[in-house]
Amino acid sequence: MKTTNIHYVSALAVATALAIPAQAQDQSTAQAANDADGRNSEIVVTATKRNESLTDVPIAVQVFTDQAIADRGITRPADFLSTTPNVTFIEDNAGEAYINIRGQTSVRNSDPNVAIVIDGVTLSSVKPFNQDLFAIEQIEVLKGPQSALYGRNAAAGAIVISTKKPSDVLEGTFVGAVGNWDTYRASANLTGPITETLGFAIAGSFRDTDGPFTNTVTGEKVHRSRNVAGRGRLLFDNSEGLTIDLKVGGHDAKGGGSAYNAQIAGSGIGGLPADPPVLDANFAEQDFISNVRGQFDETFWDATLKIDYETDFATFTSISAYNRLDQYFGSDSPPYIPDTGDAAATIQQYTYLDKNYSQEVRLTSSGDQRLRWQAGFYYLRFTRDQTSNILVDADGTLPGNPRMLREAGNTYPSLSYSNPYYKTTSYAPFASVEVDITDALELRLAGRYDTEKRSIRENASPDINPLTGASYNNCVALTGRDFADCTNSKTFKQFEPKASLTYEISPDASLYASYGKGFKSGGFNPIGARAALRAAAVGAGLDPDGVYVEDLYDKEVSESYEIGLKSQLFDRRLSLNLAAFHTDISGAQQFEFYPTVGLQTTISIDKVRVRGVDVDFNLNLDSGTHIYGGAGYIDGKIKQFDGNPSFVGNVAPGAFEYTLSLGVAQDIALTDTLELVPRVEYNRYGPIWWDVANTPGTRRDPLDLLKARLSLRSDTGWEVSAFADNITNEKYFQEVVPLLGFFTVNYRGPTRSYGVEARYSF
Predict the structure, then answer these.
(1) What span, in angstroms and rounded, lies between the C-alpha atoms of 198 and 235?
(2) Is the C or the N end of the chain the one with fewer CB within 10 Å?
(3) Using alpha carbons only, what angle is made at residue 380 by residues 376 and 381, rounded to the nearest 5 degrees?
(4) Is 506 helix (H, G, I), strand (E, B) or coil?
């Protein structure tokens, strides 16, 4: 039994693991380099905050090493998440990204359900994650509850990314690529020593693209984007147990605003027939016809300081981090049609200013003993100053200063304006222990207790808006509170245990069973949201008691059971991993948008049940053939929804029913120094529903996508590749947002793309 592990424990019988085994490790072609004996080398992961062999970790982990990232052309999060079984990844060009693992969803205006951990630091928001990947050492996708280790927002899993560290020799990589849609990208990294004890690493990236779509009214490239990012790092190691790791980085991004298509049943908008009145989530060929040119601006920077001090007793680790995100996007408002000057014509502007400070300290015992342990404490302070502004579309343009309330008489007067200020303070002690019961049987226990205090204050002006006759401040207008009382606060607490039992069949195969509890904090919708929706229902002649949105939504808590098999067979040429899981979710958070009152809200589904299986494999043959793939299946059902009992039995939204992937690559030796590697990857995504109501016409049917890559590489360090994605040019919606039962706004997936890439490493 390897002793460098932190397993968690389970009450499931190990004997059943063979019947329904589990795990997901994806290694592509060269994910594990061949050693001198021609066998695939062991893969080491940091999933449990220790360095451990992948087969020893009782967690479903999908791994992408730096070689796999290069071989498969991974440059964005979508490139690896879209091929991971039972993972849904949704992104748009305005900085939003949602990662759903095993049917546990992350949605707009709510915290993620998947922790993003970069060099040991957990991001407070997924927004800065959806950027170019460069100078990455390894990516690990952890499935199942990780809250016991990573705390808040890790109920469904975690993505652990390690960037390249300073090395003791000078080395670097340069990459440049061009493609259709006037796409250009480049990245570079350089690492090396400064002194015997101090090393450096610098890296940067650039991407500029028009994107695949053109607005037929304004002529703008609606999915255009331009991103510049950089990172610098210093590592001090005195070779006597002390290391100090300082990293500073950031990015600047610009592009188009919210670029969505709309469908309104019976209206003819979106290219659908006016009669019969229908929605069709599979009809994705309409043009972009907004009369407003969108805009997106984002700056992000962060700094982290990690200190490790190793003693005979334990290793002390301190991780301090600070980051700041400033984001703005503006565009036409739904239904995104040419309507400047019409009575209901509006534009929308949203801003976010996030500031985040976190501190973690922990003690970790040595890994070469029968009883191993870890204990620590985590602190977080997060603030968000947000504005949402719905303004009159006077001339088809966006005004400057998007944070400004524009009063009557302005060219673009505000119809609706909110300025909520959110504050979160969180702290959590955590501990774990693992013990080798026998040489083959290991028990792991872990626990964390999160306390999170959240507050909201509505800072919008209490003045009367002459356009509506009510206060700009919804809290004042709809709840009767004084401006000074427009604040709410609540503390959410949760203990998150995890346990696992692992049986080592051989050094390269193990069975495990685990139990874990996940936690995502509750929060606040804009104060007065419920009152606004009830008033809107009355105005529309509907029953206001049918409104199930609350100003406060409760925490989300999940309990998961999992059994699995992890193996590397035939001298590690074949990796085979399987998993089966069952998860019960209380308070599952979902997004609801109400355009008639300009409100984006979060609701809670009382009970959701999810169960499913994962399987993946990777086969490296002596002939140079590499075959890899995976599959996942999810059965998610709404079991209780007090807000509308008619939704009970509906399919839980936000997850593919199944996923299938298969990749094949072949190493072809042309000369002693040149190698040609053709690669083809096929992915199939099963049907998906997008809302708790399973609104008719909004189910997206199964989707098949095909990609290919042809690389010519030299053993002197250079490589040239041609690539193509979505080869069959499928037209599809990547996201569908149902509204009011007869209206959707939809985000189109990219059409066929292709290009060439050159790489040089030394």
Answers:
(1) 6
(2) C
(3) 160
(4) strand
Helices (H), 175-220: none
| Dihedral angle over CA of 76, 79, 84, 86, nearest 10 | 80
Distances (CA, A) of 51 to 56, 316, 408: 11, 15, 61
Q: Which secondary structure element, helix H or strand E, spans residue 331, and what is its range?
A: strand 315-332
Alpha carbon of residue 163 to chain centroid: 18
The answer to whether the beta carbons of residues 269 and 335 sit under 8 Å apart is yes
DSSP line for 51-87: -EEGGG-SSEEEEEEHHHHHHTT--SHHHHHTTSTTE
Strands 346-364 and 371-392: antiparallel
As a whole number of Å, the end-to-end CA separation of the chain is 38
- Nearest Cα to 304, choosing from 218, 387, 233, 256? 233
Residue 114 neighbours by CB under 8 Å, 6+ apart: 99, 100, 101, 106, 126, 153, 154, 156, 157, 158, 159
Closest to 335 measured CA to CA, from 250, 267, 276: 267
CB atoms within 10 A of CB 401: 9
- Rounded to whole angstroms, the Cα distance separating 373 from 230 reads 37
Does position 217 have pLDDT exceeding 70, yes or no? yes
| pLDDT score recorded for residue 30 | 33
Q: What's residue 41's pLDDT?
A: 62
| Residue 531 DSSP SS3 | helix
Q: Is the Cβ–Cβ distance between 661 and 630 less than 8 Å?
A: yes
456-486 core/surface letters (b: 16 or more CB in 10 A; e: else)? bbbbbbbeebeeeeebbbbbbbbbebebeeb
Task: Out of 50-54, 179-183, 397-401, pick the least confident.
Answer: 50-54
Threshold 0.85, pTM exceeds: yes
| pLDDT (mean) for 102-127 | 85
CB 342 within 8 A of CB 318: no
Q: Distances in Å between the alpha carbon of 554 and those of 105, 111, 123, 587, 752?
A: 15, 12, 22, 7, 42
What is the pairing mode between strands 718-725 and 668-669? unpaired
Q: Contact 524/491 with Cβ under 8 angstroms?
A: no
* Residues 198/235, Cβ–Cβ less than 8 Å: yes
